[in-house]
UniProtKB/TrEMBL annotation:
Keywords: Signal
All copies of domain Outer membrane protein beta-barrel, residue ranges: 609-926
Signal sequence, start to end: 1-21
Descriptive protein name: Outer membrane beta-barrel protein
Keyword Signal: yes
Pfam families per UniProt: OMP_b-brl_3
InterPro entries listed in its UniProt record: OMP_b-brl_3 (IPR041700)
UniProt keyword Signal, yes or no: yes
Annotated coiled-coil segments of the chain: none
């Protein structure tokens, strides 16, 4: 605890010194104190943003200052500001813009208090009736030049969509995959320069928030003007009129002007070999204040990566199993002309049918000899999900509401076999299973703020949630054979569990405004959580009837079912948690930097009513937590980012009850009431240098993680039965540190050739308990892992040709204090390339990628492999680009596999998953767009 306190004291001292230095400097220079005044300009009819010329005047019309209104590409906002003397005064603000009448607004600075800014009423400009914009004929102006793929505008990265060469029919995901420094994960997560994007936006607004794939796979590439990456103020900060919390790291997709108002629709369907098929449709209506969209997607191709990319199709990353998806969704975003009201609603319905099959071989390292296990399984599942999100913002009331509902309903059936052996076969088990799960989750958040004349402001934040998992029914029939003594064990388990949970959290904050954008933040809060769990396990094989040796049969009466209750492994619990919290902090947010220091203290009390066959009690626990948080960030061409936080993680209260669970005779769990709280120190820092003139970017950073009282597992292995007995206990000595860096820039003067390289080195110290044979032991296993990663890419683009050479390397070195541990030195590397070219005259686009994936240094020969993966695609458009045909060939050499290897100091595992076989698919896509009428309003 002393380390974080020392760090905080040092930072507070530094801040005090900085404040004193700033004060001394101001006294020396005797600068006049100022305040910021800001406003916005819009078309009076459409409320469209205008880049007007603003003149600030005194009441006698003498000019004080002038500025051009900044029109943000990030959203539907325009903005300008002035610095004026910090005193009561009256002003006239004039807005001028070509084709519009001049617009004047009277503005008065009244009581100032400690306010640092004031808002000027909106300018609503009226267009000239005959300004040459209505029905006039203009000669077409064609400008040709070299398009720059990437540019830096302050802290914003801008990717010009027209600078990338994509086949007709491409969607947004194809554009992002070609953007330097950007990558898309299989689940739709987006990373830029190694940092995860918090939110994917469309014209500055949320679009199916939380499900990036909807926009990635359905928004046509040809509608995109550019893609911007920047730090955006949160909804709460926008309501408060200033940054009151950390900005989000967002990717904002900007539509071309001609698609900012009108209709967009596209549909695609395809069929291929191996009974593969797909179909999707998407429609979007957009104007200055409303956006409506709907989509539908059906396919049995659980794959969204496309040929022509950077070889992300390495075998270890193949999607697992076979998946059939059916999904529909709608999204509606609307606001009033004054932009004081905004509502965003989205809803999706999803049906997924999955067929997952695996074969696994594993080895657990132990000082007395390795333990081996082999298993295979097959699972068929059918799941339905219904989700609703609604965000309401009332800017005049400074009120924000967010509602989220998620409903799931699913069933599954499974079949598995597994065996355990050391020197000889120890056990063999065959199992059948089925399950039914239904859950509902509702979340509600309401935020309100109010600013006083002094500049201070208060806020209230309410969060509530309700969760119910009911029912969660599972059948499991298993037979375990023990060859050593010729015996077997039959278990026919039925599990009936019910979980309900509610939480509400209320926080009140008061922010005291200081000079130079500093604030003192104070918060008090109360949180209450109650969770009820009923976990009933029934041993149907204990009933005196041979029919219950069959799978999935329940007794006809409740009394008969109760006779099969496994009282030693069933329990009922109700837990009540109350948390009283308070926080004091210091923060500064402006356009150049943000700094945050929070010192939160909380008092938490818990009461649990726990009912078990061997324990019927009411337990209590309470503790006080101090979890400081420090964050400092600068914005601009040189960006600095530092964060440190200390957190405490307490063990689940039920896991502290002195009971055990042997419902699975081969995996026995014993609770440990003596588990201590886990304490985590986490820090990260990055420095990024950008050069706008040459389009280069360099970053250097680190990550550090130290865990005190980490949770390890004491494991005892029964050599006669092959059963494991496990108990969680605390261990110390776990920490890791990573150094990372990256550099990207164009090579030639015309910026056709671009180089991108990144790498990292991670040192990881892992401590856990060694596996003990037939007796308890507390021998620690200490492992040191060093991971080295290097990625390099050289990309070329000119007119209709784009090509790239790609290479990747991942090395791992593992050592341990265990006597029989063999040093592990493995490395995986990839090399290859991709190309895309549109043949002039016939407008046929060819895209292909070919990559070699190699693995070396593994002890098993089957792991040291070379896989050459080749994919190709042909694209041709018809009907003036409205109809696009694609022929895609996946894995031409039939080398893709879904085998995954995992090696660490505790053991190694090799798992085979079923996956989609290679196939060829022909698709046809049709797009329709309707642009707004170019005539007058």
């Amino acid at each position: 605890m002393r380390k974080p306190i020392i760090i905080i004291v040092c930072i507070l001292a530094a801040i005090a010194m900085q404040a004193q230095t700033a004060s001394d400097t101001k006294e020396t220079k005797k600068k006049e104190k100022t305040v910021n005044i800001s406003g916005s300009v819009y078309d009076s009819f459409t409320r469209g943003k205008l880049a007007a010329f603003i003149t600030l005047m005194r009441p006698d019309s003498t000019v004080v200052d002038t500025v051009t209104c900044y029109v943000s590409d990030r959203g539907q906002w325009s903005w300008y500001s002035f610095k004026v003397p910090r005193k009561e005064a009256k002003y006239i603000v004039k807005a001028s813009y070509e084709g519009y009448h001049d617009c004047y607004v009277d503005f008065e600075i009244g009581k100032i208090g400690r306010k640092s800014y004031f808002e000027i009423p909106q300018h609503l400009m009226k267009i000239h009736r005959n300004n040459g914009m209505d029905g006039g004929n203009l000669n077409e102006l064609v400008v040709k030049g070299t398009r720059v793929q990437i540019a830096y505008r302050g802290d914003t990265i801008v990717y010009d969509a027209a600078a990338f060469n994509l086949p007709d029919g491409s969607m947004l995901d194809g554009l992002i995959r070609q953007m330097p420094g950007a990558e898309i994960k299989d689940n739709g997560d987006i990373y830029v320069n190694g940092k995860k994007i918090d939110n994917l936006l469309l014209n500055g607004k949320d679009f199916f928030k939380g499900d990036n794939k909807v926009m990635l796979e359905n928004l046509p590439y040809f509608t995109v003007k550019n893609v911007q990456v920047y730090h955006k103020s949160t909804e709460k900060s926008e309501l408060a009129g200033r940054d009151i919390e950390e900005k989000e790291y967002v990717m904002d997709v900007k539509l071309k002007r001609e698609y900012a108002r009108g209709y967009i629709a596209n549909a695609e369907a395809g069929a291929g070999t191996e009974q593969r098929w797909m179909g999707r449709a998407f429609g979007l209506y957009y104007d200055d204040h409303t956006r409506m969209s709907a989509f539908a997607n059906i396919n049995n191709v659980n794959e969204d990566r496309k040929p022509g990319n950077d070889g992300e199709w390495k075998p270890a990353d193949m999607p697992r199993g076979l998946l059939k998806t059916r999904q529909v969704g709608i999204d509606l975003d609307t606001e009033d002309k004054e932009k004081t009201f905004n509502n965003r609603f989205s809803s999706t319905l999803t049906w997924r049918d999955a067929d997952n099959r695996t074969n696994t071989a594993s080895e657990n390292f132990a000082s007395d000899g390795s333990i081996y296990r082999g298993s295979s399984s097959k699972t068929l599942s059918d799941n339905f999900q219904f989700q609703i999100q609604n965000q309401l913002s009332l800017r005049k009331l400074h009120l924000h509401s967010f509602t989220w509902l998620n409903y799931t309903d699913g069933t599954s059936i499974s079949e598995s076999t597994d065996s355990t052996f050391a020197a000889t076969l120890t056990n063999r088990r065959y199992s059948l299973g089925s399950g039914r799960n239904r859950s509902i989750n509702i979340n509600q958040n309401i935020y309100w703020s109010k600013q006083f004349e002094s500049g201070d402001y208060i806020s209230a934040d309410f969060y509530g949630t309700y969760y119910s998992h009911n029912p969660a029914e599972n059948f499991r029939l298993s037979r375990t054979d023990y060859p050593a003594n010729g015996t077997h064990d039959l278990h026919n388990n039925y599990t009936d569990s019910h979980t309900s949970n509610y939480t509400y959290d209320i926080d009140f904050s008061y922010n005291f405004i200081l000079p130079d954008d500093w604030e003192i933040n104070s918060t008090v809060g109360y949180m209450q959580n109650q969770q009820s769990v009923t976990n009933g396990i029934y041993r149907l094989d204990m009933l005196d009837n041979e029919r219950y040796e069959n799978f999935g049969l329940l007794p006809s009466t409740r009394d008969s079912l109760d006779m099969a209750l496994d009282v030693d492994n069933s329990h009922i619990s109700t837990t009540m948690v109350r948390k009283y919290s308070g926080s004091i902090g210091l923060s500064k947010y402006n356009g150049k930097m943000s700094a945050t220091l929070r010192l939160p203290v909380s008092r938490l009390t818990e009461r649990m009513n726990y009912h078990h066959a061997t324990l019927d009690t009411t337990a209590h626990r309470a503790y006080t937590a101090f979890e400081p948080y420090i964050r400092f960030r600068t914005y601009g061409k040189t960006q600095f980012n530092f964060r440190y936080n200390f957190s405490v993680s307490r063990p689940d209260f039920a896991s502290l009850m002195p009971v055990s669970n042997n419902s699975d005779p081969l995996s026995i769990r014993i609770n440990n009431p003596g588990i201590k709280n886990r304490k985590i120190h986490k820090s990260e820092g990055t420095v990024t240098f950008k050069n706008d003139s040459i389009g280069s970017s360099v970053y250097v950073g680190y990550d550090f993680l130290l865990t005190h009282n980490a949770r390890g597992t004491r494991t005892t292995y029964n050599s006669a039965t092959g059963a494991y007995t496990r108990m969680t206990d605390n261990v110390n000595g776990n920490w890791s540190g990573t150094f990372k860096t990256g550099w990207q820039r164009p090579i030639d003067r015309l910026k056709r050739l671009r180089f991108d390289v990144s790498g990292s080195v991670k040192y990881e110290r892992s401590v856990d308990f060694d596996i003990a044979y037939d007796t308890d032991a507390d021998v620690l296993s200490k492992v040191t892992n060093i991971y080295t990663r290097l990625n390099a890419k050289m990309a070329y683009r000119h007119e209709k040709l784009s090509a790239a050479i790609v290479s990747k390397l991942v090395m791992r070195n593992s050592t341990s204090n265990r006597d029989n541990f063999e040093r592990i030195n493995t490395y995986d590397y990839q090399y290859g390339g991709n190309a895309q070219y549109t043949i002039p005259g016939i407008d046929l686009t060819i895209a292909t990628d070919i990559n070699m994936f190699c693995r070396r240094g593994y002890s098993s020969p089957s792991m040291n492999t070379d896989d050459l993966v080749w994919n190709a695609q042909l694209t041709r458009s018809f009907l003036k680009g409205r109809l696009t045909a694609k022929l895609q060939a996946f894995d031409l050499l039939h080398r893709l596999s879904a085998v995954r290897y995992n090696i660490n100091a505790q053991g190694r595992t090799e798992t085979w998953y079923n996956c989609i076989p290679r196939y060829v698919m022909l698709t046809a896509a049709y797009k329709f767009t309707k642009k707004p009428d170019k005539k007058g309003r």
